[in-house]
Design brief:
The protein has about 130 residues and is of the alpha+beta class. It has one helix at about 1-25, and strands at about 30-35, 40-45, 55, 55-60, 65-75, 80-90, 100, 105-115, 125-130. It has a single domain, classed as Sandwich (Jelly Rolls). The chain contains one helix and nine strands. The radius of gyration is 20 Å and the shape is globular. The N and C termini lie far apart (about 45 Å).
Length: about 130
């Protein structure tokens, strides 16, 4: 009797093993972008409360490398959190996932403090969040 049901049980187990990682994958939402200029040392990406509440953010860079020094996250409830990053992000690269302390909150804006090497590049910085 067990041998007759073995293929069915193995099929169900295979489906569970294949689907489990997909179900636990994070869904990153683009919150905003900014271009990095040589003449400035920081930019603000405005998000707004309408985007929802988040518990982690990540910065992705394209079009040139930047040296990211810190981030200041301004929340919709008026509080803010400074995150020391100190990370060189290459073109096509990203920061590690950055945890936002406390409960999930709406993000009003994020200030990015940075430097870059070359005046002739204008890297684009994209801010992503996950719930």
């Amino acid at each position: 009797m067990l041998n007759r049901h073995a293929p069915w049980v193995l099929g169900v187990l295979l489906i569970v093993v294949l689907v489990a990682p997909i179900a636990q994958a994070k869904h990153w939402i683009l919150l905003g972008t900014a271009h990095v200029d040589k003449s400035e040392d920081h930019k603000t990406i405005h998000v707004g409360n309408g985007a929802g509440e988040f518990r982690k953010i990540q910065v992705r860079v394209s079009g040139g490398a930047i040296d990211l020094q810190r981030l200041v996250v301004h929340f919709g409830n008026g509080t803010q959190e400074e995150l020391a990053v100190a990370d060189r992000v290459r073109s096509g690269g990203k920061t590690p996932e950055l945890d936002l302390p406390g409960e999930r909150r709406a993000i009003e804006s994020v200030e990015l403090w940075y430097s870059k090497e070359y005046a002739d590049t204008r890297p684009e910085v994209s801010l992503y969040g996950t719930r």
